[in-house]
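Quick one from the shared queue. A colleague (R.T.) flagged Maleylpyruvate isomerase family mycothiol-dependent enzyme as missing a structural entry in our internal table.

Convert sequence to structure tokens.
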Amino acid sequence: MCTDDDGRDPWLPDRLLRTERDLLMPLLRRTPEEAYELRTACPGWTARQVLAHCGAALVRIVEDRLEEGVFLPEANAYDVAEREDWPLARILDELERGLTEAGPVIADREDGRLDAVALGEWVHAGDVREAFGEPGAYCGESLDLALPLLSVTSRRRETPRLVGVLADRGDHPVALGNAMEGRPEARFHGDAATLIRIYAGRPLVRTRYELTGATEQELLIYR
């Protein structure tokens, strides 16, 4: 779980990506192709387009094609458009390669700047699960790896200090963000998936939670 330790675990992104690979790829391989045209929480993107973006981003890391602006919306849209005519199997193959090979490259980056990409891939897997109507979107078996990575990312993205009490995880507290002089820490009470939704900017329809001391907008890690 999250702690107050600022030390980076360089192999945490790799463990998250590989665990998610083993959980997600069997689902994707057995899902009928027509389901990939379903819309996701990402505005304008279908499940197929989200996965094309995920594979492209990870393989860019693997192949060290990280030119300036590489993960900005315009570049992401270009990568997705470039894969528009690819067979679905090719998109899934590229994604599986990225989930397998990107982690060690991310671990080698001492600045940790690519760690948030691994977390974003996990969030996008939740986007696809939700579009498919699968249980465990933004939660599931990878959550124990995603939460510590969210803690690190929330500090790097300079969100305000928040202590979350997760009702579905034994009310275990998680510490996120940075302490700010003169500002009390914010408080969250709800389930883990809703906490992820808030930080990732995903829809909060049909959720229940209490948030005091901060706004949802202040907590966003992907802007």
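Strands lie at 162-166, 172-176, 186-190, 210-212.
Confidence is low (pLDDT under 50) at residues 1-5.
Added to the table.
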